[in-house]
Amino acid sequence: MALSIENLSDWLKSSATENPLHNIVVVCVNLLEAFGRALNQQKLVVENISNQTNAVSELTSVLIKYKSPKTDETPAPLGKTLEETKSILSKLKAQGIEDLPTAEKCFSPGVSSNTIRIWEEKLSANKESLTNQSQQETLKLQTFTNRYGQTSDQAANITQKDYQGKSTFVTNLRGN
User: How far apart are CA 43 and CA 114, in angstroms?
Assistant: First the structure.
């Protein structure tokens, strides 16, 4: 008897049989479902951290664009418009940078290069923290992936051994 999708589904649903191999496969399939859900959740966590890291990088690039090329501390406008200045300050605040001046002060008279450098350092620290977190979460994702694969292999091997055992038994009954 070959196992089709319908037969396999019915076979897995009939839990608590006298066949211990069947019961182990049912447990493995339930584990596979749980690992699949965990994998999907962990993938979302890693993607979220990656998006946050990209946002920090983009914000750092914007700040560098508005840093005054002069070596003195002459303030330069942060943004081309007041709205852009407000947007930049909002993104800085979202990244956890506190004690920001008002948008009006950042636009005119502007922000010194030293202030922008301090913000860049804080963003760099945020990015480093996110990178470390990303590495940890990626390792968890890899672990879930490995366990998912191991459980799948285990279920396939047990199913194959069960089938081989029954096939051998039937062959022996026929008398070769």
Answer: 39
Structure tokens at 171: 């062959």
Number of domains in the chain: 1
Distance of alpha carbon 87 from alpha carbon 59, whole angstroms: 10
φ/ψ region of 100 (left if φ > 0, alpha if ψ in -120 to 50, else beta) reads beta
Domain limits at 111?
Answer: 61-161
Dihedral over alpha carbons 106, 65, 119, 130 (to 10 degrees): 140
19 domain-assigned: no
Is position 105 within any domain? yes
What is d(CA 102, CA 115) in angstroms, rounded to the nearest whole number?
A: 14
Instruction: Assess whether the previous peptide bond of 109 is cis (omega < 30° from 0).
Output: yes
C-alpha distances in angstroms, 173 versus 1, 160, 167, 168, 176? 16, 20, 10, 9, 8
How many C-beta atoms lie closer than 10 Å to residue 106's C-beta? 24
Residue 52 inside a domain? The answer is no
Q: Is 76 helix (H, G, I), strand (E, B) or coil?
A: strand
**Structure confidence by residue, pLDDT tens digits, 13-52:** 665 567 777 777 778 888 888 888 989 999 999 999 999 9
